[in-house]
Design a protein that fits this description.
The structure is a homodimer of 379-residue chains. In chain A, helix 1 packs across helix 2 and helix 14 crosses helix 15. The first copy, chain A, has 2 domains: 228 residues, Rossmann fold, CATH 3.40.50.450; 68 residues, Winged helix-like DNA-binding domain superfamily/Winged helix DNA-binding domain (Arc Repressor Mutant, subunit A). Chain A is elongated, with a radius of gyration of 31 Å. Helices cover 44% and strands 13% of the residues of chain A. With 379 residues, chain A is of the alpha/beta class. The longest helix of chain A has 20 residues. At the A-B interface, helix 3, helix 6, helix 11, strand 9 and helix 14 of A face helix 3, helix 6, helix 11, strand 9 and helix 14 of B.
Amino acid sequence: MNEEHIARAALARLAEPGDTAMGAALRVHGPHEVLRVLQSDGPLPPEFRRRDPAGYRVRLGGPSAADDLATVARLGGRFVIPGDRHWPTQLDDLGDARPIGLWERGPVPVRHAALRSVAVVGSRAGTDYGTYVTDELARGLAGARWSVVSGGAYGIDGAAHRGSLAGGGTTVAVLACGVDVVYPRGHDRLLARIGETGTLVSELPPGCSPSRVRFVERNRVIAALSRGTVVVEAALRSGALITARRARDLGRSVIGIPGPVTAPQSAGVHQLLREEDTYLVTSAAEVIEHVGLIGEDLAPRPSGPTRIWDQLPPEATRVWEAVPPNRSVDAETIARDAGAAAQTVAACLADLEAGGLVTRETTSTEQGEQRTWRRTTVN
Amino acid sequence: MNEEHIARAALARLAEPGDTAMGAALRVHGPHEVLRVLQSDGPLPPEFRRRDPAGYRVRLGGPSAADDLATVARLGGRFVIPGDRHWPTQLDDLGDARPIGLWERGPVPVRHAALRSVAVVGSRAGTDYGTYVTDELARGLAGARWSVVSGGAYGIDGAAHRGSLAGGGTTVAVLACGVDVVYPRGHDRLLARIGETGTLVSELPPGCSPSRVRFVERNRVIAALSRGTVVVEAALRSGALITARRARDLGRSVIGIPGPVTAPQSAGVHQLLREEDTYLVTSAAEVIEHVGLIGEDLAPRPSGPTRIWDQLPPEATRVWEAVPPNRSVDAETIARDAGAAAQTVAACLADLEAGGLVTRETTSTEQGEQRTWRRTTVN
């Protein structure tokens, strides 16, 4: 903890998340100077453009940086800023929209948790299908030692955190409120568990309430922290789609899990999958294939059962098909039905018989022995 | 009907569908010469490579071309060959795998029916979901005057034909057996209806039974006839995937309709959608967008309900969000919560009040009038 932490903590009180004017001013003048100007009555530096300083100054009477830092420390948390050893440098991709700092709570620094992480997000009103698929996915990711980053909300977010925890994984909840605020209320136990084993993180100081704008800006942090964003269920215009598109803008993988086209909860995912640079996946292994290191995390290609004709050359398949399963016929009939020469048919029948695929029957007639074939019944 | 029809009808009896050696020989020597050689005892021309002539000659004793042509004529059908006015020239894209000729039955020549057509194919074991979606899709295509081409099988194929018929459209069943053979048996009435209003078509002469090889080769005709192939439900290794990949090889659009990732019947579609050059769609309009003429058949972009914050500038949204819905607060509180200057807040509140989004309350106090605001409750 140093002077820069204190200055940035104070600035985090004054600015809303995603304030690129603030980000530009910080980049040019540093946190001390920006804070000094905002605490004075003077004009703002040019990076703030035409922003009214009163928008920041109206908040100067709020809790002090020392109060906020003490509150978070009391909860066993910390405030990390760019340049810290534990700063998640992938957030630097956000440019001037990079958070001023991050308030963290939990045993795993977000930098570590997020190094090998996937964001799993979706509708608050997830269906049973979406909840099931999310749970499977998050467990699978946990099993492959991938962290799950999500937003702590009801529905898909909650299923993602729970699945990761159930799979023994690390999960990160990026909040749109202070890390000491329980939102949504019904997730009090879930958020407590995440705080005990993973990380609760926010760019908003303790005590702050969520708002729509904060949810939207929070999504950019989810997108930037992780190697890719998976959307499980999302209605048209769902916030999860904003997260996914921000991930795409940041060069992260954008991944969707399809569902029934009859379900409004999948309509947003399908819209996303119809856009460029979006990948359809059906399993954790396929997600990892997209976000993993090239050649390291290849998913097994799904395959159906092997069938007899996969093993046979085309000619033998034709002959095999020409042998009826319900009666025994002679080679000439088989040749005609298969459209194959007698010699070919004889060779194929010998192979098929050796493989147990046809059964030969021999009948003694006045003209000598007559051989006929019947298809062997298999599975 | 001319000599070439008779020669090609005879050759259609001797060769199996998709015989590229036969196709090459026809291209070089023409049907009369190829038929003459096969009817003789001599060696085959070099295009046949090492193929054993007995494979063809074993079938020479079967029904004559005249018999076959008479059989189909009796059913109100016809035999069309390359060069005919009614030949579907899109089949020429198959190169040497082009059918020797097509046996047609029904009032609409396949050439006409297929000019503006989409193949809709899928699993024989379609689920209720798949059947429903296929029906909706085929009706929608029919409503937009697109024909539906399919294979006449149980499951998705059947739903595609039925949906097209229900929508008043033209539908084409491409069979892997003679056009006089009812296969599958349970589709006797459906096939009869297609024959009455659309087209039954096959490259196999009358009386021929289906076989696995014939199903596989039939798929290339479905793929080549239509502008694109839509796979609705398909297990891994389903024949519908063969049709789709043949369509891709032919430069046609390959389209998949997703389903639950938990359903084996959708696993093949999802596998297809993970390949290059495959489009995910959710409606007939989106299918038409892919197969239609550029700029002519654009699907409407799906959209969710418009929300208040879509209409407001970001600053006004922030102010609106800072006005609580359950109690009335003063402008100073709103400014602090929104992080906005008093002047901005005053301007935004005036706009929001004019728009009916906030309600002003005025209380007389000893200090004079006090104005407070409360968020107006809107759905």
